[in-house]
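Sample intake sheet
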Amino acid sequence: MSSKVCVITGVGPGTGAALTRRFATGGYRVAMLARNADRLAALEAQVAGAKAFPCDVSDPEQVTAAAEAIRRDLGEPAVLIHNAVGGAFGTFLEIDPEILNRNFQTNAMGLLYLARAFVPAMIARGEGALIATGNTSAQRGRAAFAGFAPTKAAQRILAEAIARDAGPKGVHVAYVVIDAVIDVPWTRERFKDRPDDFFIKPAAIADEIFHLAHQDKSAWSFNVEIRPYGEAW
């Protein structure tokens, strides 16, 4: 088992699948985490070097069990990407408070559980990378994002706290703000009148995250924003 190991959460048909393919192509054995076991199994059959580990990252016991299985089957991870996301639309009067809590468990607490499971070994080795994917909700709270934006803002600040602790110990932590609509079938249907260059390509997101995971330590990034060239910001 000489290849490095990358753990990716939230592996679905968009960014998660693209990340899996990019890191597998880059020579990694990829541990894929998501709640949908059938979808993981299908991708495992398509991507050499990828292995499915069904897991709900909001559950600390499931994260611990998945971490143990990854170490047993693949080895100690060199890269951890928290891509799982819980989201909901609605104003503060419209949302069910439990929805906000549920999203917080996936977005913020999930990052904490994963970091505690894998980053100590990276610190011990003096190298590694932890990358979380976010969006503009991590930077501002629009009215209809009351059940989502607070959890992503907390996630970004938690990532920064981890970076300030683990960075001087050799572990690169970065937060990627994806300021775009990701090109997947359901967004194409919702925004059917938009041109191709309105969407951000999952493969392009994956390329940028692969680059982040391999930055020279003399020029590490933390806050990274990516968007289509035509996006207003």
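Comment: DSSP finds seven helices and nine strands in the chain. The mean pLDDT is 96.
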